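Hey, can you fold this one?
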Amino acid sequence: MKQLLTVFFLFALILSPDILSAQTWQTAVTDGTKLGVRDKYGELESYEATFVVWIMDKVKFTANPINVEGDAWGEVYWPFDFEDGAGQKLETFPPGYFKVEISVKGEIVARTDFKMTLEEFEKSVEVYKAQKFKGDQ
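Sure. Predicted structure:
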């Protein structure tokens, strides 16, 4: 009986879904263009998150991976924390509709989207500068 339970346990372990897909992920778009992700219950303890923004499903911009601890929010700012395909930092970007993919350990764990107006972009510049200034103190 003990051997049968061991075989059953190993079989269940092999067929169980990856731990990342079992997580409860939260996403947020705030202050115009601050993008966030969170492991709601902190089950991973720490992880590295990568944000990718797509424009018209064709043009891809990537932020450098960020380290997140427990159930804290990991945040990046669009477009300031992103680079184009040539590795150049973005300083500005026209308003529009954007799709976001967030990956952990190479697996997409969340998708969201946002629409940015000119007013929201101008607000995001102010918020970003305030955050950078606060972080430099």
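Residues 1-19 have pLDDT under 50 and may be disordered. Let me know if you want another pass with a different chain boundary.
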